[in-house]
Every structure is written in structure tokens, then in C-alpha cells.
């Protein structure tokens, strides 16, 4: 199994990152390849899940081991394939998804593409209790997960601002839209980026 790749990031597409290692280009499918935008043409380490089936071998890439572990756990749920698992990891943090599973929040889970009530219930059945260690490490308390959600909001906001900077927007422009982005409680990094772009184009 290929546990991770450590090489030069030579290209990004909408679906993948291309890593050059000793003259060999490895295509790694990522939920949001542009998370690695700041490391283009530089050395980068991407944690990988080597998915093998009879007709294909695919490398899925993640920013850290927690995302990779969550992807693998979701993949074990009946009715969820790699595309669905990758979509979940790309649109929710590990802590956010873990809280939803532990609190049996079907409304949150059914927001992901291809996840209906039946699949949401299956995820809760298969994963509840198995993700508790992740929740504990991120500061989940007995107050409805408020501490975790605030941490997630702050992280998503910071990542969105960094992504917009990488796209060429100036500090002054981003400062102006900052308060409006912070009002978007619970929005994912990708959602905040899209919201930010819409505001900047007005």
C-alpha cells in the first residue's frame, strides 16, 4: 500500500494533484486539490489511500492522517463508495462529521450528495462510537458541540481567506468582506470560498 507521497507538486486540476517523484508523475484524486495551491512547484507531502479493485487502482489524497482515516471509515459504510466518501471529507471537517454522527444529526448528514435518510442512518449505525476519539481530541463538551463548531468555523474561515489570497485578492479586499463571511455559521471552507468570490465580484 502507498501510505503517502512526498515529492514536487507540478500540476493541479479540478479533481487531482500531480506529484513528481524521481521523474514519475503520480495522479492523486483529492476532494479539493486547490488546498495545495500554495505549494505548487514545491515539495509537498500528501497522505494517500490506495484504492484497489479488479479494474482500477486509484490514489486518493488528503492533507492529514485524520482526513485519510475518516475517508477509510466512511468507505466501510454500506452504500458509500469512494466518490461519496471523498465528497464528505471535502465538505466537512473531521470534528464536524464526528459530532454529527455522535449526535445522530441526520439533517447534517443528508446535505451531502447522494446521502439520503437511509444512508445517513446506516452511517450512524456503522460509525457511532468509532469516531468518539476524534471528537474528544477536538474539544467536544456537553454543551451541544458548541466548542467544536466554533473551532470549525474559525478554521474554515482562515482556510477560505488563505485560498482567496492564493487567487490574487489583496488583504484590503479580504478585510472588507471578512465580517460578512464570519456571519455564515457552519459553512464549509469551499462554501466560504464561493461566498467570498461572489462578494468580491459585486
UniProtKB/TrEMBL annotation:
Its main location: cytoplasm. SUPFAM superfamilies: DNA helicase RuvA subunit, C-terminal domain (SSF46929), Nucleic acid-binding proteins (SSF50249), RuvA domain 2-like (SSF47781). GO terms for biological process: DNA recombination; DNA repair. Keywords: ATP-binding, Cytoplasm, DNA damage, DNA recombination, DNA repair, DNA-binding, Helicase, Hydrolase, Nucleotide-binding. Pfam families: HHH_5 (PF14520), RuvA_C (PF07499), RuvA_N (PF01330). It is found in: Cytoplasm. Belongs to the RuvA family. Homotetramer. Forms an RuvA(8)-RuvB(12)-Holliday junction (HJ) complex. HJ DNA is sandwiched between 2 RuvA tetramers; dsDNA enters through RuvA and exits via RuvB. An RuvB hexamer assembles on each DNA strand where it exits the tetramer. Each RuvB hexamer is contacted by two RuvA subunits (via domain III) on 2 adjacent RuvB subunits; this complex drives branch migration. In the full resolvosome a probable DNA-RuvA(4)-RuvB(12)-RuvC(2) complex forms which resolves the HJ. This is Holliday junction branch migration complex subunit RuvA. The gene is ruvA.
Amino acid at each position: 500500500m502507498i501510505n503517502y507521497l512526498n515529492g514536487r507538486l507540478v500540476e493541479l486540476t479540478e479533481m487531482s494533484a500531480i506529484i513528481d517523484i524521481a521523474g514519475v508523475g503520480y495522479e492523486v484524486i483529492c476532494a479539493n486539490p486547490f488546498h495545495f495551491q500554495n505549494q505548487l512547484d514545491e515539495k509537498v507531502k500528501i497522505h494517500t489511500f490506495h484504492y484497489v479493485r479488479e479494474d482500477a487502482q486509484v490514489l486518493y489524497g488528503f492533507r492529514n492522517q485524520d482526513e485519510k482515516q475518516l475517508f477509510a471509515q466512511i468507505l466501510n459504510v454500506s452504500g458509500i463508495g469512494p466518490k461519496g466518501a471523498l465528497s464528505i471529507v471535502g465538505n466537512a471537517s473531521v470534528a464536524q462529521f464526528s459530532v454529527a454522527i455522535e449526535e445522530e444529526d441526520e439533517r447534517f448528514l443528508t446535505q451531502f450528495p447522494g446521502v439520503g435518510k437511509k444512508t445517513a442512518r446506516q452511517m450512524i449505525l456503522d460509525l457511532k462510537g468509532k469516531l468518539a476519539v476524534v471528537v474528544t481530541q477536538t474539544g467536544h463538551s456537553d454543551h451541544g458541540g458548541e466548542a467544536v463548531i466554533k473551532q470549525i468555523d474559525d478554521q474554515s474561515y482562515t482556510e477560505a481567506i488563505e485560498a482567496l489570497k492564493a487567487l490574487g485578492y489583496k488583504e484590503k479586499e479580504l478585510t472588507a468582506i471578512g465580517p460578512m463571511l464570519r456571519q455564515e455559521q457552519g459553512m464549509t471552507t469551499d462554501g466560504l470560498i464561493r461566498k467570498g468570490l461572489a462578494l468580491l465580484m459585486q
